[in-house]
Amino acid sequence: MSVVTRIARSRAAQESLGFLGASYLRLVRRTNRFSLDPPQAYDWLSPLRPFIIAMWHGQHLMVPFVRRPQDRAATMVSRSVDGGLNTAVLERLGVRVMRGSGARRSSDVWAKGGIQALRGCLKALDDGESVAFSADVPKVSRRCGEGIVLLARLSGRPVVPTAVVTSRYLQFDSWDRASLGLPFGRGVMAFGEPITVPRDLDPAGLEAARLRIETDLNAVHARAFAQVGRVDPVHGRKEPRAR
Predict the structure, then answer these.
(1) H or E element: which one contains 180?
(2) Whole-number Å distance between alpha carbons of 10 and 117
């Protein structure tokens, strides 16, 4: 293990970077003029709690801000070095973290802590915490995996497609096409219609639910970006909606 990796894994380094990361995201939140889509979103979201906040991995950085002070929320984060940094940021933003992630190969799920984290998500929902969940197949951007469908099926809780975007951002050439919001612009917190996954669905029904989550997540991101006069950086240029 290199010296840089050992430093990056240290608790002190991750806590320091977590403080800086959380402080920066709060700055972005404060200096952007955010609106809700739909405008009365919390009026119909509150009775749904606890629910599953579906998000795309590359657009997840600002999602913690959909949590109001009175709302309890948890999420699962990988056991990687990057996951340690994300954990330090999220905890400072008031989100409880469970370590673990899914895997493209079923044989790797246990080693990555995916089973344990899924059980933690089920317990969190049962205890009244909403759960933010990255819907992507691991390392495959914008393709919904089976994990979020399984969580919705086993918990009985609705999935709410969610997008939090800003008009000014940095775009990275990473596997998840991550965006980092910048200060002094406009922002939108957008929500799609809740999606339920009945426990007794057959394989065809489960695949239909997976496709609906994927389609609705892309649609809510396209809608959010259009409202700030931008286009979804992953799915190409579209004419923004007039404001």
Answers:
(1) strand 179-181
(2) 22
| Spatial contact of 58 and 234, defined as CB atoms under 8 Å apart | yes
Q: What is the DSSP letter of 75?
A: E
Fold of 8-228: Glycerol-3-phosphate (1)-acyltransferase (3.40.1130)
Please provide residue 211's backbone torsions phi and psi, each rounded to the nearest 5 degrees.
-65, -35
Token code pair at residue 61: 């950085």
- Angle value at C-alpha 190, between 147 and 123, nearest 5 degrees: 35
Report the distance separating Cα 196 and Cα 51, nearest Å: 10
C-alpha to C-alpha distance for 184 and 166, rounded to whole angstroms: 9
In the DSSP assignment, the letter for residue 240 is: P
Q: How far, in Å, CA of 88 to CA of 185, rounded?
A: 26
Q: Would you say 139 and 175 are in contact if contact means Cβ atoms under 8 Å apart?
A: yes
CA nearest 26: which of 97, 95, 96, 93? 93
Where are the chain's structural domains? Answer: 8-228
Q: Which residue has the tokens 């939140």?
A: 29
pLDDT in tens, 101-150: 765 544 455 555 678 888 999 999 999 999 999 999 888 889 999 999 99
Nearest alpha carbon to residue 53 among 158, 173, 168, 196: 158
**Cβ contact 96:67 at 8 Å:** no
Give the pTM.
Answer: 0.89
CA 9 to chain centre: 23
